[in-house]
Amino acid sequence: MTDEASMLEIGPDRSLLLVDDDEVFLRRLAKAMEKRGFDVETADTVAVGCVLARSRPPAYAVVDLRLEDGNGLDVVEVLRTSRPDCRVVVLTGYGAIASAVAAVKIGATDYLSKPADAADVTHALLAGPDELPPPPENPMSADRVRWEHIQRVYELCDRNVSETARRLNMHRRTLQRILAKRSPR
């Protein structure tokens, strides 16, 4: 998708809210999205993101899931209330399936795992509702699928290790060791 083609698809309201607490990533993405024709506003906390979402609801938004002062899904909820037609993409460095499901249930248009570049974000923001994403070039390994399932159950148990271990029929210490490790590729 060329920059010119994406500009034609943006529409009359080019407002875009970016919410992320990674300052370098936020600046880089803001600059790239401005080059693609968006009118960008940035926020680095849930609180600032919610204020901007209420005062000047954007047509588009990209929200990081985990921010220093809370959960990015709170910003998504405010966006849904303030402007129901806002197209929201949730970004996260924690690629858990449970988080993706929660984001879409609350009203996110799409969900991308970091690192996502400006082209991925633009495509997700402007994709039609019936447009399916391309199949992954590198599908998840069996270890990754197992890790994603454990993360999903852990989130469903409100991050309670003992309850998660009980539901997975696994020893609590084993689960703690798995949760302490980085996700497999």
From TrEMBL:
Biological process according to GO: phosphorelay signal transduction system
SMART domains, alphabetized: REC
Keywords (A to Z) from UniProt: Activator, DNA-binding, Phosphoprotein, Transcription, Transcription regulation, Two-component regulatory system
All copies of domain Response regulatory, residue ranges: 15-129
Annotated CDD domains: REC_RegA-like (cd17563)
Gene Ontology molecular function: DNA binding
Entry-annotated residues carrying 4-aspartylphosphate: 64
InterPro entries the record matches: ActR_PrrA_rreg, Bact_response_regulator, CheY-like_superfamily, Sig_transdc_resp-reg_receiver
Organism domain of life: Bacteria
Main function: Member of the two-component regulatory system RegB/RegA. Involved in transactivating anaerobic expression of the photosynthetic apparatus. It is a transcriptional regulator that is responsible for activating expression of the puf, puh, and puc operons in response to a decrease in oxygen tension.
PANTHER family assigned: PROTEIN PILG (PTHR44591:SF14), STRESS RESPONSE REGULATOR PROTEIN 1 (PTHR44591)
Name used for this protein in its record: Photosynthetic apparatus regulatory protein RegA
